[in-house]
Amino acid sequence: MKTIKLVILSVFAMTMVTSCNQEGNYEKVSYFTMDANGELVRPTDFRSWVYVGTPLTPNDMNNGKAAFPEFHNVYIDPMSYTHYKKTGTWREGTILIKELVSVGGKIAASGNGYFMGDFIGLEATIKSKEHFPNEPGNWAYFSFTNPKSGTLANTGKAFATAQCNSCHDSSAGDDFVFTQHYPVLRAAKNVGMDVVPENTSKR
Prior knowledge:
alpha+beta, Chalcone isomerase, five-stranded antiparallel beta sheet
């Protein structure tokens, strides 16, 4: 009987130590890999991360020439979401994924609107002082989309600073991230570890 109790206590202690290490060392947990050429290896399993939202800027609301006329399903790695809840800031190593989806149709049984079509691309945003010390805010932006082949590239090279950073710098709500368009992130900012925003009654 004593042996069983000792085993249970040992397992419990090991679990607590692991949990504390994961909670305390945010910057040591990484959800992305850079290859020898300095390119981002295409992340996988991101649909199991925290879903942030899906913005859309359709062509017919932008004179037929929207810069981003597709749906953008946005996900953030779990550790960065936890860190954002605790501190209200984006940690070193934060990664957000944008999964591009075409507008499939505008008519459904529920009425007229914009409905998702097919997966057409994948992009990523990373905050890393280690890899991008000279980029504004240490953020870099990547694309794995290959419109001609219909497949995704295995790696992506960071866009030039002027292509993405300037817009994020001037218009994003919180450290180069457009939090003003994502109520999930607005609700999570600095609420602490004991609060689960989606479980509260406030709407």
